[in-house]
Amino acid sequence: MRRESMKRLLLVALSLSLLLSAAFGQLNFVSTQFHPATEREYFEGSLLPSFTKLTNVKVQFLPLTYEEASTRIRAEQAANRVSIGLFAELQGGMELMASGGLLKDISGVTFNDRTFISTFEKFAQGYGIKQFVPWLQATFVMVVNKKAFDYLPKGLTKEDVLKGTAKWTYYALLDWAKNIFDKTKMPMVGFPENPQGLFHRFLHGYLYPSFTGGQFVKFDSLDAVDMWEYLKELFNYVSPGSSTWSFMSEPLMRNEAWIVWDHTARIPAAVRSDPEQFIPVPVPAGPKGRGFITVLVGLALPKNAPNETEAVKLIDYLTSPKIQFEILEKTGFFPVVEEAIGVIPAGPNKVLAEAVVAQAGTQDAMVSFIPGLGPKGGEFTAYYREAFRRIVYENEDIKKVLQDIGPKVYQTVKDAGASLPQPDASLFH
Known about the structure:
Layout: H1 2-23, E1 27-31, H2 37-55, E2 59-63, H3 66-79, E3 86-90, H4 91-99, H5 118-123, E4 125-126, E5 129-130, E6 133-145, H6 158-163, H7 170-184, E7 189-190, H8 199-212, H9 222-234, H10 249-253, E8 259-263, H11 268-273, E9 278-281, E10 290-300, H12 308-318, H13 321-331, H14 338-341, H15 348-360, E11 365-368, H16 377-393, H17 398-416
Parallel strand pairs: 1-2, 1-3, 7-8, 10-11
Antiparallel strand pairs: 3-10, 4-5, 6-8, 6-9, 6-10
Helix pairs in contact: 8-9, 8-16, 16-17
């Protein structure tokens, strides 16, 4: 009880401090992005100080988890004591906030010198308002050490992998991984399974759509059983080091994995170190299509947010073509402004961009968005990791595990009050 009381006092003190800072002109910027140490160092040590120097606007950067950010904004709105001036979040999270009437309509915030990608502008609208200004985009791709191409299975070519043709499937990946293992005695596929890694995104946003057609509405279906049987077999050729890896650049550069999957913001170090050796490629396809996540980050103003003028200045700065390109160079997040995309020079960033474009342009592409579940987001992803652990590592019966966890997944989404994300929503049209 004493510990809980102390925590509450600390939260109250922090809230009062932020309210005072907002009152005196400091912009409090909450973000669910730029949490890894290198990204945060760039953001706080370079990007924001440059903005302050240019505009004389001081910014307090507050990196919070999806759950913390959602809880914080809801609490401030309920108490009518809003200290957060600007909010960066994924599209799904923004939609959930907008559905609860927590965001300010920013349809009047426009900039004449830039063109936002029209698809992203479409997703920024909803519930009768413009919820956010698009800021960043990212996805997850595979990166292949070119040594692996010497072990391609029969019927699969390097061109198939690079272009994401119909032959580049998860079963082709399995044959490829087995071929490498049989000839080298090394399991050379790698995933970021560490709790700080993003392996859960592979499960709910890549495998599930590719094998079942949805992220969670068919969690315990027969198609899902087939998917888990496939994953169990693939893991015969996945490096045991995966359980310790958070970012896949280092295992690639240490020659501990030849075929890896990760977020485009977490693999640039390897690609930049040798873009001819480490080659980004589209992900494979499953029986239902080539499922992949498009990560769209936006900038929004909470309803009744203070310091609106300063917030708009920061939005202007962060979405300018020059800063959009700089963020790509420093973090691997891709621009949402056409003027920035068109000037990416040849080199590692161009290589990554080409893989992203190739993946999105495949004929069997199946776009997924990360569900906006607010405080329930952690529970949602934990269930996928639990299913993985019990099925792949503990060898429990697949149907039993899915029947156990499936209702919990559905209830979590229902409790969050979230609308169905893609591709689940398409199953009901």
